[in-house]
């Protein structure tokens, strides 16, 4: 018997139009996400959803994903191989910023990790504007910016 509590649930606070809420995601079930007003409630909803998924999978004879083995501690040390040209470009950029190559890499990775997170969050809240009203608004905005109707 599979126990829902064995799966990896990550709860994080997010800002929404209605204020702060909490999102619970399950690593082994990427499409499973629950939202609530408190972290505990989000976690409990995720566990309930996992139990429902387990029931459905068992009824249909489907195999459940293995529980991911997540390392508890990271050393903070990463070894990687780079093409020589990229290594040179990064070293030059670090020298230009007057920081070590290591610090430059940390800065770049931190920036792009934050950028990617923001991009995912924006995409989750983005909805395309459809219809003639939207194109009329865009045209009026272009006229205001440029002062030209062409």
Number of helices: 4
Q: What is the string of SSEs from the N terminus onward?
A: EEEHHHH
Distance between the termini: 68 Å
Number of strands: 3
Shape: extended
Counted up, domains total 2
Fraction of residues in helices?
A: 40-55%
Side-by-side strand order of the widest sheet: 1-2-3
Give the rounded overall mean pLDDT: 82
Query: Compute the gyration radius: what is it?
Result: 23 Å
Enumerate the spans where pLDDT stays under 50 for 5 or more consecutive residues.
Answer: none
Amount of beta strand:
15-25%
Largest sheet: 3 strands, antiparallel
Class derived from helix and strand content: alpha+beta
Textual characterization of the structure:
With 150 residues, the chain is α+β, with helices and mostly antiparallel strands. The protein folds into two domains: 4-60; 84-146. The chain has four helices and three strands; from the N terminus they run βββαααα. It has a three-stranded antiparallel sheet with strand order 1-2-3, with helices on one face. The protein is extended, with a radius of gyration of 23 Å. The model has no long low-confidence stretch (mean pLDDT 82).
Topology, please?
Blueprint: E1 9-16, E2 19-26, E3 29-36, H1 39-60, H2 84-96, H3 101-125, H4 132-146
List keywords for this structure.
single chain, 150 residues, alpha+beta, three-stranded antiparallel sheet, 4 helices, 3 strands, 16% strand
Brief characterization of the structure:
By secondary structure, the protein is α+β, with helices and mostly antiparallel strands.
């Amino acid at each position: 018997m599979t126990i829902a509590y064995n799966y990896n649930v990550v709860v994080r606070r997010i800002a929404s139009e209605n204020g702060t809420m909490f999102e619970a995601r399950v690593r082994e079930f990427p499409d499973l996400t629950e939202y609530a007003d408190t972290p505990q409630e989000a976690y409990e909803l995720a566990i309930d959803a996992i139990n429902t998924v387990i029931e459905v999978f068992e009824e249909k004879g489907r195999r459940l994903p293995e529980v991911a083995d997540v390392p508890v501690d990271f050393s903070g040390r990463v070894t990687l191989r780079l093409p020589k040209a990229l290594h040179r470009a990064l070293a030059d950029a670090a020298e230009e910023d007057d920081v070590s190559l290591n610090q430059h890499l940390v800065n770049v990775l931190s920036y792009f990790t934050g950028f990617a997170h923001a991009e995912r969050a924006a995409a989750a809240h983005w909805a395309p504007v459809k219809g003639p009203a939207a194109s009329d608004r865009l045209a009026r905005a272009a006229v205001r910016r440029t002062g030209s109707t062409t």
